[in-house]
Amino acid sequence: MEKLVFVKPNLELKDKILEYKNEHFEYSEYEIHGSSMLDKLEYEEWLDRLDNNKDVADTFVVVREIDNKIIGIIDIRYDLYNDFLKNYAGHIGYSVRPSERRKGYAIQILNEAKKYMYNKNINKIMLSCFKENVGSRKTILKCGGYLDREFEYEGAMLQIFYIEKESFKLITPTIEYKEKAIDFVNEFYEYNSPINGCGGLDRFLKNNTYEEWLEKIDADQKREVTEEKVPTKTMFLVNEKDNIIGIINIRLALNEKLRKRNGNIGYSIRPTKRGKGYNKINLYLGLLECKKHGLKNVMLDCEKNNLGSAKTIQALGGVLEREYLDEELNEMEQVYWIDVEKSIEENYEKYKSYIE
Q1: Which among 56, 139, 128 has a CA at the least distance from the CA of 89?
Q2: N or C: which end of the chain has fewer CB within 10 A?
């Protein structure tokens, strides 16, 4: 998707912003959400209003970088300084211009606004929309929002949502996670989904016990490198509520067999949490773990038709080395390499707000 940037309104943007405003009016939209009264004020008067409110809020136009077109507008309020904001409006209001809707821009805008708020140490964000506004409700939910309450307001049902900051860490599995680990594995079975990078957890829960798996992964770290085995570290990805979101298996050395296929890292995200970027966080934290163990470059592979996994690896700087036919699976596989230090440095700003 095209890159969007938040830009503070100024006199130089007057013509473009008025064009944006007029498009809403042409579509019979005379209230522009998130515009801090752009729809009701003259332009210079509106700029003065934004300047007067700068200690408690920022209003930005959202510009598509590739063509400098204004895609939307957003008002980010750091302080819910009156009863209307506290009870009805919340921290964020936004709009997308009518001709650019249904292209995913609203989700992109709200996700960027979340990061902006988190960097201001506002970790619980209130938003609202009318129940009949299905598109806005779906956007909030896709960005991690949850419904807190709803009530009648001005003859319609108003819904109040919250988005809370997520944080993640990799932890060594312990006995305290037994029930959560069982639930985690069972979810893969429910969705008929393979589980990768689990260090044999699924197999042990079927044939042995969780306690024996804990002993096994502890022993795995102490292995000597042979042509059959290498030392490995298996960790859970947990969120701020201590729920298991994913799992990762890091092979701390490579033998000839692993250099041909599989590489250093395998990982999975539980099926109900996919499509939210969590595996990129999982891999980034995995790279931090690799650095602790002195790994400079790491190898990963994935099925060529597994576009989600390939995009995750590429997003963290993976460089394609080769493709090969896995004769056991009858699938084309891709082999990538990641420069650990480079990836950590280049992606720090992107993932720092998620790291506990």
Answers
A1: 128
A2: N
Find out whether 250 and 232 touch, Cβ atoms under 8 Å: yes
Q: What is the pLDDT of residue 120?
A: 87
> Residue 175: its pLDDT value, please?
98
Query: Given this model, what pLDDT does residue 326 score?
Result: 82
* Contact criterion met (CB below 8 Å) for 210 and 181: yes
| Confidence (pLDDT) at 171 | 97
CB-count exposure of residue 192 (10 Å: 0-12, 13-18, 19+): exposed
Judgement on whether residues 134 and 181 belong to the same structural domain of the protein:
no
CA distances in angstroms from 109 to 72, 92, 105, listed in the order given: 8, 11, 6
Which residues span the domain enclosing 306? 168-354
Among 170, 169, 172, 145, CA closest to 159? 145
* Rounded CA separation 133/92 (Å): 16
At what angle are helices 178-190 and 210-220 packed, to 10 degrees? 100
80, 194: one domain? no
- pLDDT value of position 65: 95
CATH number assigned to the domain comprising residue 298: 3.40.630.30
pLDDT digits (tens, 9 = 90+) for 129-158: 999 999 999 999 999 899 999 999 999 999
Distance (Å, rounded) from C-alpha 148 to C-alpha 128?
10
pLDDT for residue 349: 86
Number of DSSP helices (H) and strands (E) in the chain, helices first = 12, 14
Cα 118–Cα 122–Cα 125 angle in degrees, nearest 5? 95
Report the alpha-carbon distance of residue 242 to residue 236 in Å, rounded.
10
Residues of the chain with pLDDT under 50: none
What residues pair up with 69 in beta bridges, in sequence order? 64
How many angstroms separate the CA atoms of 46 and 94, rounded? 16
Q: Say whether both 22 and 113 belong to one domain.
A: yes
| 145 and 163 Cβ atoms separated by less than 8 Å | yes
